[in-house]
Amino acid sequence: MITYHTVFTAAMVLLIIAVDKQSPLLFFFDLVAIFLLFVVVHVYITALWHLANVVSVLEPVYGFAAMKKSYELLKGKSKIVSVLVFVYLVICGVISIVFGAVVVHGGETYGVFSRIVVGGFLVGVLVIVNLIGFLVQRVLYYVCKSYHHQGIDKSALYDHLGGYLGEYVLLKSSIQMENLDF
């Protein structure tokens, strides 16, 4: 964290110097450095946060302890997780930009029906992207646990989630769809 603050402070000082000296090249490179620093830190914190959400659901750990556990789990797999989170954020950003351009600010260019159809489609795409994102989060959790040679206790997971752990059991009633009259 100290490195982040040091680099950010140095970049801000360079930005002030670039504005004072009226150097557009230094100003541009400094803005790129600040943007890249922000994106890298944002992606890493987002990856920690998403993994902490999974940890808090699947383990009896919450809050800062879940963040610490996700930090420990990310060690060794942070590059692939960062790439996946970056792709997720880019997809959500593209959906947001298109939604804003067409649905929110497209009053004169697009008709009402087109805006409703595109808005509904984009909301559906965003729901699908989020559901796939949740699935990827759970898979990454298990990948990170296996990378650190941590076992997955199915019975503890069953007790914690209150779910069913076993084979499929048939329903006791014999209701069949073909016997129903509509």
Question: How would you describe this structure in keywords?
Answer:
75% helix, mainly alpha, 182 residues, flat
Structure write-up:
The protein has 182 residues and is mostly helical. The model has no long low-confidence stretch (mean pLDDT 81).
Summarize this, please?
By secondary structure, this protein is mainly alpha-helical.
Order of helices and strands: HHHHHH
Structure class: mainly alpha
Which sheet architecture does the biggest sheet show?
none
What value does the Rg take, in angstroms?
24 Å
Low-confidence stretches: none
Give me the number of helical elements.
6
How many beta-strand elements?
0
Q: How far apart are the termini?
A: 65 Å
Shape designation: flat
**Integer average pLDDT:** 81
Residues in helices, as a percent range: over 70%
Oligomer: single chain
Percent strand equals under 5%
Topology:
Layout: H1 2-21, H2 24-58, H3 64-74, H4 78-104, H5 112-147, H6 154-161
Helix pairs in contact: 1-2, 2-3, 2-4, 2-5, 4-5
